[in-house]
Design goal:
The protein has about 325 residues and is α/β, with parallel strands linked by helices. Helices cover about 35% and strands about 25% of the residues. The chain has ten helices and 15 strands. Helix 5 links the parallel strand 8 and strand 9. Helix 2 (about 20-35) crosses helix 10 (about 290-305) and helix 3 crosses helix 4 (about 135-145). The two termini are about 15 Å apart. The mean pLDDT is about 90.
């Protein structure tokens, strides 16, 4: 008899996902979109008056799991969602997983994988604009993979910014900045991780060669980068097709949209990105393949360790 599906809580997800596992699965998932012929993915969004529902589904033959994620994203920020894991061998629902923590962790890992591949400077000064779960996970992830000499944090709330700076263990200098301009001035890498619908990052204060990890705009109407940045940058995306619809890439001039490069192409080869502009943007809208790769790890480890509560949907 087929085992019943299991319910895995946010706390259990945290216990099952160590950093190295998330990083490895993220890199595998990003490369799979370029190299895995037996894998497929789809993403969509349902808009409502106060936000949007993000739907992402993918299968990875290597993990024998098909994942379906539904995340509710209110316009003011935050996320709540659930992830369904289907076992491709039994052809049955195998798990129902809290998706909030996993989404933030995998987004941070995507930023880290992209920064490793695209950054050419060491050591680096990193500025993070936006200190919600995604911004904080990106900061922690970059500290793990880069030689960060200074980490600058900014959010509209200086008290929250100061608390975030205290909570991050990393380089000797973690600075709570009062303005975004203060944070980005002279930084080698700038992370934008806000739900903003109007640009928060302009070219003012940006140094030539800056790598911008644009992690916030993932829904039609969201935008963090001003045209003074976007029009003067080379653009790489985790999922170019989606980024051109709902990411920062959607605001590129029509004649430049074909120039967006997939990070999977760079990860799967030694191909060097041809640069023609002073800034470099990594436009992330989230990858269904990455979700599937991490879901496979969660389910495998949950089964091995006896984690999760059985749920009986069919009597």
């Amino acid at each position: 008899m087929t085992n019943p599906p299991i319910l895995i809580s946010r706390e259990e997800v945290q216990a099952l996902l160590d950093w190295q596992a998330v990083y490895d699965a993220t890199r595998e998932g990003l490369i799979a979109s370029e190299t895995a012929p037996d894998s497929s993915a789809v993403s969509a969004q349902v808009l409502y008056d106060q936000g949007s529902l993000h739907l992402k589904a993918a299968s990875l033959e290597s993990g024998r799991i098909l994942s379906v994620k539904a995340n509710l994203r209110p316009n003011q920020g935050g996320v709540s969602g659930v992830l369904l894991a289907y076992d491709l061998d039994t052809q049955r629902l195998a798990g129902i997983i809290d998706a909030g923590l996993m989404t933030a962790r995998r987004t941070g890992a995507i930023a880290a994988v992209a920064a490793e591949r695209l950054n050419t400077v060491a050591p680096v000064t990193v500025a993070v604009l936006g200190l919600g779960p995604v911004g904080m996970e990106c900061a922690r992830a970059l500290l793990r993979v880069l030689d960060v000499v200074e980490l600058r944090l900014w959010s509209p709330n200086i008290t929250a910014t100061e608390q975030a700076a205290i909570s991050i263990a990393g380089p000797e200098r973690v600075i709570a900045c009062r303005t975004s301009t203060e944070a980005i001035s002279g930084a080698n890498i700038v992370v934008t991780a806000t739900p903003s619908t109007t640009p928060i990052l302009t070219a003012e204060g940006l140094s030539p060669g800056t790598l911008i990890l644009a992690m916030g705009a993932d829904t039609a109407g969201k935008r963090e980068l001003d045209s003074t940045v976007l029009d003067n940058a080379d653009v790489v995306a985790d999922v170019p097709f989606d980024a051109l619809r709902v990411g920062e890439s959607a605001y590129l001039p029509a004649g430049r949209q074909a120039e967006v490069t997939a990070i999977s192409q760079l990860l799967a080869s030694s191909h060097q990105l041809r640069r023609g502009h002073p800034y470099l943007i990594f436009d992330s809208v989230g990858s269904s393949y990455v979700d599937a790769a991490i879901t496979s790890i969660i389910m495998t480890r949950a089964r091995e360790r006896g984690i999760g509560s059985e749920i009986h949907l069919w009597r």
